[in-house]
Amino acid sequence: ARDEELWRLACVKVWGHSIGTLDAQDAENSTVYYSWRDMFIRRERVNFSGCYISKTTYLRMGENSFQDQFYRPVQLVEYYRYIRFMPDGKVLMMTSADEPSQGVTKIRNVHNIRPDVLRGRYRLFGDTVTLVLQKSSQSRATIGHVRQRRGSVMPLDEDSNATQFLIELRIGHSPKRRCAQLVWSHYTLVQKRNKVDTSSEFDLTDAKYPSLWFSPVKSYHLDADAPLV
């Protein structure tokens, strides 16, 4: 289990061609790794054997009653955001009112993605993970048939009228698990209409975009624990 070649393969599975070398310092924090095992343990990464989940709650005011103008109902709205990373560089994101026990099953089958799920690719830069996503209802020909090295340029469908979601998340830790938290740092919506791009940046308040926390999912282990080679 201490064989360095095994740990090197594990690092390649996580960071792909951007893995770097042991004697090169990390530009983000000047970290030096003394072995491939040391890199795998201490370097920021995303977990594959589960899902990152956040819960958002807010109050929505209803319409005044016709019979009593002083009565106005208040609705408590709750929804969850799910992000699942895979070893081949793909990522899925879904927003749903379903509880986690039901929500994680909707992004379990990576070969039959639901229309309400955003899909795309991600890359790691130090303690930051960058996501490029789009609606899964569009043609999946490009992603489905182009084989890409992990961490390479993210291919998405070419469409003259497309919508993409550009997201940056900072990787954090919990007392019991490393890399268990994702904190929002940037979120931009890019709409392409007739070859003209229009971007809109979201206001990332803690109330609307709380941190996502990792939760293991047993049914994901088949993909997460695939052979290293």
UniProtKB/TrEMBL annotation:
The keyword Protein transport does not apply. GO terms for biological process: SCF-dependent proteasomal ubiquitin-dependent protein catabolic process. Residues 34-149 form the F-box protein Hrt3/FBXO9 C-terminal domain. This is F-box protein Hrt3/FBXO9 C-terminal domain-containing protein. It comes from the Eukaryota. InterPro entries: Hrt3/FBXO9_C (IPR045464). One of its GO terms (cellular component) is cytoplasm. Keywords: Ubl conjugation pathway. It comes from Drosophila subobscura (Fruit fly).
